Amino acid sequence: MTGRWVVFDYGEVLCSRTTALPVLARRLNVSEEDFRRAYWAHRDAYDRGASDTDYWQAVGDTVGVDVDEPTVMELTRIDIQGWSRVEPSSVRLLRTLSAAGSPLALLSNAPASFARFAGRQPWAQHFRVRLFSGELRMAKPDAEIFELLLSRLDCDPGECVFLDDREANVAAARAAGLRAHIWQGAEAAHALL
């Protein structure tokens, strides 16, 4: 292995890209194109700690739809389900690394509601440390989140291998001294590690 800790991103690394956006757009009775723009326009604030209500009301305001509390709950449930399909090859990799004694950590830009869901999933047991931006109120690629990660892991940056699907996050992790790599699938990660 190339480092003491192996740190994974979640979205589009351990899990597939969400397929929930068309479902969410239909639920609000708006075009998928308009919904996608609104969904992503407000996502950074959501990932940095905005509440489910604040996020979905901002999305609703952008597409011209009133969003009440029961709708917020429904949209949140659908959204979480959309991001919950963990790739079998990723689960196998986690099992292999965990069985070999590699300490694993998760660093994800995701809302606090997703963090609560993730903590109950079987795959989460493989991680000694799980950090979600929505709970921390900071997000990748900010330098502060990598400083916090290293503090929580109680290790030097060179003792971490970091895997993420976004070049900006990988570049920021490298700037913080981590051994960071673009995610190219579980097989490539297994070979790297």
TrEMBL record:
Coiled-coil region: none
Matching Gene3D superfamilies: HAD superfamily/HAD-like
NCBIfam families, per database record: HAD-SF-IA-v3
Protein's name according to its UniProt entry: Haloacid dehalogenase superfamily protein, subfamily IA, variant 3 with third motif having DD or ED
